[in-house]
Amino acid sequence: MQTQSTAQSAGPSLMPMITGAWASQAICVAATLGLADLLAQEHQSEEALAHATGTQPAALARLLRALASLGVFRETEEGLFASTPLGDQLCSDVPGSLRNLAMMVGAPEARRAWSDLTYSVRTGNSAFQNIFGMDTYEYRTRHPEERAIFNAAMADMTRQVAAAAVAAYDFSRFRCIVDAGGGNGALLASLLATTPGLNGILFDLPSGTEGAPELIAAAGISERCKIIHGDFFKAVPTGADAYILKSVMHNWNDEMCCTILKNCAAAMSESTRLLLLEQVLPARIEADPLHRRALMTDLNMLVMTSGCERGEAQYSQLLRASGLEIKAIIPTASSFSIIEANRAPYPQ
């Protein structure tokens, strides 16, 4: 008979995954308290950090030591702590910051929804909707602080994906591009800043474009970019020669995706391109970091929304059902790919 000790020593242990939620929450608290910013310039004592964060010194020391065991911070000598390359990613003002993402993932409403993953697996429905009686969009409309963290996290991640997209795809072929569901404009700002001849339209609900005018002005592209408010479930602006949607499809079920895509198709000419920036699931899943990121995101979509991540065949079906067809799928240096589509030459 295999004992507990032999089961744990026979190969890789599940223990780090089982307790992974503890680590995630510890990182969330570190991000919320701004510990990485405090440790960015110099070593700090437990007492100094507790005073700066308004926390109980002994309890904060336990958090710091736990994070040091994860490699997020390091204890330089007893009671003194410094940051590490991992911890630096929690700083608020560095390229590639993950601070907002850590706070979003560890937020109480997200934890409550994930605690009922069993409900989603049994029913196929959103645990978030079941618990709170509303979808995540309505919830964030009612809770501006959570909305601000979500928008900031999405902007941080978008900047990284945008850099990879610009490196992989030639946007200079277009004169005007519509970023549908573009939020605060982080993606469009990156595209226009690196493509001097390109003009852009940021299209989203008013609540989605909070902070967009300031971001666009800071990027120096105000003369080439305008903001139009609207709902892509009803229509999208016409007249552009490219439409880009990042992380839009994975938020919605097939029926709702088809509504968005059909509205895009209606605004497109035969030469117009539709670009979907999404994580495309591989045909065969392996224990690979990129696969893990995409599949964990897929579970998050199950819990939090009505959407899902999809593979090439699923995207092909969605696009064909909407009067579009895949022209190419271009991988990028990130986990995202660019799905390039045009209007189908045949009736649907």
UniProtKB/TrEMBL annotation:
Catalytic residue positions: 250
SUPFAM superfamilies: S-adenosyl-L-methionine-dependent methyltransferases (SSF53335), Winged helix' DNA-binding domain (SSF46785)
Domain O-methyltransferase dimerisation span(s) in chain numbering: 17-90
Domain O-methyltransferase C-terminal: 114-323
One example GO MF annotation: protein dimerization activity
Entry keyword set: Methyltransferase, S-adenosyl-L-methionine, Transferase
Top-rank lineage group of the source organism: Bacteria
GO BP terms in the entry: methylation
Alphabetized PANTHER family for the sequence: O-METHYLTRANSFERASE CICE (PTHR43712:SF2), PUTATIVE (AFU_ORTHOLOGUE AFUA_4G14580)-RELATED (PTHR43712)
Protein name, UniProt field: Hydroxyneurosporene-O-methyltransferase
Organism field: Bradyrhizobium erythrophlei
